[in-house]
Amino acid sequence: MTGRVIVVGSINVDLVVTADRLPAPGETVTGGRFDRHDGGKGANQAVAASRLGAPTSFCGAVGDDAYGERARAALVDERVDVRELLVMPGEPTGVAVILVGAAGENLIAVASGANTMLGPEQAAVALDRLAIGPADVIIVGHEIPTATTRAVLRRASGAGARSILNPAPAHGLDRSTFGLAGVVTPNRSELAVLVRAEAARLGRPFPAPDDPERAARTLVEPNAEGAGATAVLVTLGPLGAVLVERGGTSTSLAAPGVRPIDTVGAGDALNGALAAELADGRPLEDAARRAVVAAGLSTTRPGARAGMPTRDELEAVLRPG
Q: What are the residue numbers of the active site?
């Protein structure tokens, strides 16, 4: 590895119920199976990068409760550096309640808890202590305060590090934040939120949501101040992804042929793998292609982290023949 992966984001405990189908609003579906997993999009991304061999650090916040202790221990077990994982006295650790249907589709509700207490100054100090530099790749999510996400992207840019913004959830993000990122990684619905917000701000027509390439291009076009993402990688589930880069380049990336069991965490696997591959010195298109395969593999086992591939598992699938 030529650089490190540093993740600034959320850390939760996932409470998961798997049922034959997802309930409609107001409906109760019985017969489900319960399990508890370690989660949070930021922590999941750190695990994904670490399993691929990248030296990985995580900056986030947990409460002073049993869930927080469990969440920290789970990252340590995955060889993630947790020196910058803060404990917020009196705050609960974040919890996600996840419903998973028979086809692997899911519904998720999150009580963010201590994640909301990670401020921009604390994140900036953590990055300074980690001495980030041009070889490093910084992933930052949006399950933490927007001001913190923005501060992390600015710090990464100032240090010459590459940055990845996972805009989940996308509401509340605008060009003043995503325009600072090297790569923005929305899914189709998150892309729609970002582009609709831009269209409303600029008074322009909204690109059709069934044309992710065209929609993504509006996010890489610099505005009058020059702000715009360098690239957008739109995840499309079983259809793979599309990579749109500033300057006109657009590339479709095919997903691997797998039978999904649980799609929870697939986006996190993609983000962590993308960062690990970039930290390994791969060009963006190659890194994105490999990340799409890693995301597909992650859906073949239940749980947000259980299916995230190791380096050997990923290379076995990518190996010709």
A: 268
